[in-house]
Amino acid sequence: MSRYIIRRLLQAIPVLLGATLLIYAIVFALPGDPIAALTGEKRMDPNIVAILREHYHLNDPFLVQYWYYLTGLLGGDFGTDFAGTRVTELMAGKFQVTINLAMTALVMEAVIGVGLGLYAALRHGRAQDSLVLASTLVLISIPTLVTGFVLQLLLGVKLRQAGVDLFPVAGVAEGWRSYLLPGFVLAGMSIAYLTRLTRTSLAEILRADYIRTAVAKGLPRSRVVGRHALRNALIPLVTYLGADLGTLMGGAVITETIFNLPGIGQQLFSSIYLREQSVVVGIVTVLVLVYILANLIVDLLYAVLDPRIRYE
Prior knowledge:
Helix content is about 75%, strand content about 0%. The longest helix is centred in the middle third of the chain and has 36 residues, at about 85-120. It is mainly α. α5 runs parallel beside α13 and α10 (about 220-250) packs antiparallel against α13 (about 275-305). It has helices spanning about 1-30, 35-40, 45-55, 60-75, 85-120, 125-140, 145-160, 180-205, 210-215, 220-250, 255-260, 265-275, 275-305. It has a domain at about 90-260: MetI-like fold. The mean pLDDT is about 80. The chain contains 13 helices and no strands.
C-alpha cells in the first residue's frame, strides 16, 4: 500500500503544476491594471507605479512572471498580494472558516442524503419514494442564491422574531451555530444528488441474488440491509463524498457572500477582481491539494469497505 500512496502523491505533482499554470494564465489574461486597482479612482504617483510594477514583475512576459511565482512556490513561499501581505497570512484564518463550512455541509450531506436514500430504497415504488424524489428535484431546481436568501429570511429573521434564535443570519460570532444554515444551503444540491445515488445503488443491490439468499436463510432484515446491502452500496457514495469535498470548498463563494462569512471564497472573489495572481493561484493550489488528499483517502477506504480490493 505504501508504494501505491507514493505513486499517487507523485501523480499529484503534474496536476498541481497544470492547475497553477492554468489559473495563473487566466488571471494574467484578465483586463485592467492591478496596480491601478489598489487606489481605485485616486491617481498614484507614476514613480511609485513604476517601482511596484518592477517589484511584482508586471512588466515581464507571462512565462517569466509564472517562473518567478513557481520558484517561490516550490520553496514554500506562496507570495504576497499587492498590499504586501503574505498569502499564507491571508489564508490562515479564512481557510479555517471555509473548512468549518465545508465539513458542516459534508456531514449534513452524508447524514441526510444517505438517510433519505435508504428510506426511499426500502420503499421503492411507494408514495414515500415518490415524495423523496420530488423533494430532491426541488432542491436541484432552486439555485443556491435563492435558497440562501429564502432560508435566511425564514429561519434567520422570521423565526428570531417569533422568539426562536437557532440560526444566525451572518458572521461567525455564534460558533458552530453560525455554520448550520449556510452549511445546509451549501450542501442542498449535493444532498439531492447523494439521496438519488443512494436510492439507486441500494435498490439495485437489494435485488441481487446474495441478498435474496440472505433473506431466505432467515437473517433479520436490519442485518441484511445494514451489513450486506448498505456496505456494498457505500463505495460509490464514499467516492461521491470525497470528490464533493473539494467542490464544496471551491463553491462556497456564493454561500459565504450571502451569510457574510469571512472565508476563502470571499477572498478568492476579491482577489480575482483585483487581479492578484499570487493570491488566486495560492488559494486554488490549496484547494487542489485538499481535493487530491480527499480522493487518496477515499481510495484507501475502498479496501476497508471491500476486502477484495488490493493495492498493487
